[in-house]
Design brief:
This protein is of the alpha/beta class and 617 residues long. Helices cover 37% and strands 23% of the residues. It is globular and about 80 Å long. 55% of the residues are buried.
Length: 617
């Protein structure tokens, strides 16, 4: 959940590092630091706070920043509070070795005890400082080379990591390694770029290598890449890939925040997700390679388990409705963090679907590995090409949402739902559990969703006016029924994430089983009240709220009369089928959360205590 950056080559390292850290700041932003290397020495600067504070410190402290080798880090705290001392890079006791690290070393305490008995002292509370001193200890005790000391140490630790290590006496060499935490390497002639993801180096090269778990690389200035297995030092042949990231995708453009840009990108990202998969000219033919090549597995599946975390878990709940409705297969949805610890019953005929925007979510990865170990067929849905999940699953589908920089997921949510709709319709067609007319109608309507979302995005000004009224409340309640219950959960999560207002999502019928006790004139209730799906029941829920002086913000269809007369505020969306409605009903909820957070003066893209990709448990 931290961002690491490194450079080894012929250019000045500082501009590459500092700009790279800014692009990685969505991965962690409670502290940051850099180390620039020159002959027999280095300059180190680190500080609590965001990258701009690191820049200020470097400027005012007149830190030497000239050098063509460097490493940098932006942190999301796991071990030790955010402060200057716990910030990375970390230095060994001799001051010779310097390291940056993303991940968690689970047995660091036991190693720390051994090191303490051998005279090592520690300034920070981090597991990273323990690891760099462990490397130094092995190196001196056994007269190992640095690369051998790194390799042996990594065979002894338990946990997850991506690391970069430099010896100040050998500034023309960086050693990197990975296990369970993402690490990408950009490659040009006579230079290497190291980063948690390729975004920081796409300005310089589109040649990239994604390290696999258990791999390490020795990077030397002017030399070819030396890639090896950590376990046995076996030399590997590097597989270089061409990146397809558009620079405009990782810039804000005319928008103040990435989150707003990504909300407005959803008409395009849904079209991109449908492209090549939904062929209307072929009478609504759906083609997904991962399904086509495993047709019999899905036809004969007795049950499907969907595993995910956070926003992806909410998308999974919608997937449950869709798969059970169209494919008539029993579906269970599990939190990845719970799935792996409860000894789930998994057999060879089970289908497991794992969903993750980044493809690196630690709990989801662990659940995936458990499912495969037990013999299940695993299908992955993720956004990042070449990610760990994409490499490990038996088959899968990319969402094609493009880079998502805002910490609060928006476009990845609707892209995931789009894939799940296609998946459910395709499997239903194979199993003959959906009739041709309904299938074709839904395929045609799916094509119209981007236009309907674009229409809803134009209600942003009216949503801002509603936000002005409620931005100072302490609590919100979100209600939905059927397939829109998970949308209520997602709306509440968005508000919590970026505005820090307590919010809860509930099935509307459950309001009478507890939450109704909270309703008064100070409790705004956001309720999804579209014509399709239990409309009369929703009207009854709204009347119960109004009888207790609650304030109602209703998402309604255009032309709605009954709810519009009851609600305090209405946000209108186009009419559409219930099964596809989450793709549109979530848009005003994203905008509501965004506008409230902006009015409250919060940093929408970098909410406190959160990071984009949860690569630690």
């Amino acid at each position: 959940m931290c961002g690491i950056i490194g450079y080894l080559g012929y250019r000045e390292a500082y501009p590459i590092l500092i700009n790279g850290l800014k692009k990685l700041e969505y991965r962690g932003y409670d502290s940051s630091g850099i180390a620039i290397f020159y002959k027999n020495g280095y300059s180190l600067c680190k500080t609590k706070g965001r990258v701009y504070e690191l820049e200020r410190k470097i400027y005012y402290d007149k830190v030497k920043i000239s050098g063509t080798t460097g490493i940098g880090h932006t942190r999301w705290a796991t071990h030790g509070v955010p402060n200057d001392i716990n910030a990375h890079p970390h230095v060994s006791n001799s001051n010779d070795l310097i390291m940056i690290h993303n991940g968690i070393i689970e047995n660091y305490h036991a190693i720390k005890i051994i090191l303490s008995k051998n005279g090592f002292t520690f300034k920070s509370k981090t597991d990273t400082e323990v690891l760099i001193n462990f490397i130094e200890f092995l190196r001196k005790e056994n007269k190992f080379s640095l690369e051998e000391a790194v390799r042996i140490s990594l065979n002894e630790i338990v946990g997850a990591y991506s690391i970069a290590v430099v010896d100040k006496y050998y500034p023309d060499k960086i050693i990197i390694a990975k296990l369970g935490s993402p690490l990408a390497l950009g490659i040009n002639e006579k230079e290497f770029f190291i980063a948690s993801d390729p975004i920081p180096f796409v300005d310089y090269t589109n040649n990239a290598l994604y390290l696999k778990d258990g791999e390490m690389a020795i990077l030397k200035k002017g030399k070819e890449l030396d890639l090896r297995k950590i376990v046995d030092n076996h030399k590997l042949h590097p597989i270089i890939k061409k990146l397809k990231i558009n620079l405009k995708q990782i810039e804000k453009g005319k928008y103040k925040y990435f989150m707003l840009k990504e909300i407005h990108e959803q008409p395009k990202t849904i079209l991109d997700t449908l492209r090549g998969r939904l062929l209307i000219s072929e009478c609504g033919m759906i083609y997904i390679d991962g399904i086509e090549s495993n047709k019999d597995i899905f036809i004969n599946a007795k049950c499907i388990t969907i595993v995910a975390c956070g926003t992806s878990w909410h998308a999974s709940l919608i997937g449950e409705y869709l798969l059970e409705e169209f494919a008539r297969i029993p579906v269970e949805v599990e939190y990845a963090s719970e799935f792996r610890y409860r000894n789930p019953i998994i057999g060879k005929k089970n289908v497991i679907i794992v969903i993750s925007q980044s493809g690196e979510t630690a709990d989801t990865l662990s659940a995936l590995k458990l499912a495969k170990k037990k013999g299940a067929f695993v299908f992955g849905i993720c956004n990042v090409v070449g990610s760990s999940i994409a490499r490990i699953v038996d088959a899968g589908a990319y969402t094609h949402a493009g880079p998502e920089i805002g910490v609060a997921s928006t476009k990845s949510f609707t892209a995931q739902i789009t894939v799940l709709v296609l998946l459910a319709l395709k499997i239903g067609k194979y199993r003959s559990t959906i009739n041709d007319y309904r299938y074709k109608c839904l395929c045609q309507e799916l094509r119209s969703i981007p236009e309907k979302i674009d229409h809803v995005l134009k209600t942003d000004n009216s949503i801002r006016e509603i936000s002005k009224i409620y931005h100072n409340v302490n609590n919100f309640l979100y209600l939905g029924r059927g397939i829109n219950f998970p949308v209520a959960l997602e709306g509440a999560l968005k508000l919590k994430e970026i505005s820090y207002i307590h919010a809860e999502g509930y099935p509307a019928a459950e309001m009478k089983h507890g939450p109704i006790a909270l309703i008064d004139e100070n409790m705004p209730v956001v309720i999804i009240a579209i014509k399709k799906g239990f409309y009369d029941k929703i009207v009854g829920n709204i009347q119960e709220i109004k009888a207790r002086k609650g304030k109602v913000i209703a998402i309604v269809n255009e032309g709605d009369i009954q709810v519009s007369m009851l609600a305090d505020h209405v946000i209108k969306i186009p009419y559409l089928s219930e099964e596809l409605s989450p793709l549109v009903t979530v848009i005003p909820l994203q905008l509501l959360a965004y506008q409230i957070a902006c009015i409250r003066g919060e940093n929408v893209d970098q909410p406190r205590n959160l990071a984009k990709s949860v690569t630690v448990e």
